[in-house]
Structures are given as C-alpha cells and as structure tokens.
Amino acid sequence: MPNGTVKWFNGQKGYGFIQPDDGGNDVFVHISAVERAGLQALREGQKLAFEMERGRNGKFAAVELRPL
Asked: In terms of residue numbers, what domain contains 2?
C-alpha cells in the first residue's frame, strides 16, 4: 500500500491530489473515497496510505485511504 502526502484538497469541488512518497505522478482523490474512509475532508500535508484504482476514464485514483 503506497504512502503519500495530500498536495491539496478542495471539499467544495470534491477532489484533490496526493503526492506519492515514491516520487511518482500525483494521484487524483475524489470526495467519495474520503467519505468511504470515514473522513470529513483531507488537509494539505496530511499523510495517507492508499491504494490506486483505474477509473472508467483510464486514469488512476486513490482509494482505500488510511490516515497515517
């Protein structure tokens, strides 16, 4: 399970991005994944563990979020 840091998250827009600790490309995160993790929102700089899942658009998104 990769770890990363929330780069930014906008609760009103319902999405943001996580910067993986391994230095790869930023990973999209949707509010639905945040809510499924039992969280209200994410804050910039917050450390998370997450899985990546390919969406219908072919791009990856963070799922199975777990605060560290």
From this structure: 1-43
Number of compact structural domains in the chain: 1
End-to-end CA distance of the chain: 12
Encode pLDDT of 18-50 as tens digits: 999 999 899 999 999 999 999 999 999 999 999
Question: Which SS3 state, helix, strand or coil, does residue 66 take?
Answer: strand
List the structure tokens of 60. 């990856």
What are phi and psi for residue 58, nearest 5 degrees?
85, -5
Identify the CATH number of the domain in which residue 2 sits. 2.40.50.140
Query: Of the candidates 57, 56, 19, 18, which has an alpha carbon nearest to the alpha carbon of residue 34?
Result: 18
For the chain, the average pLDDT equals 96
Question: Which one-letter DSSP state was computed for residue 13?
Answer: T
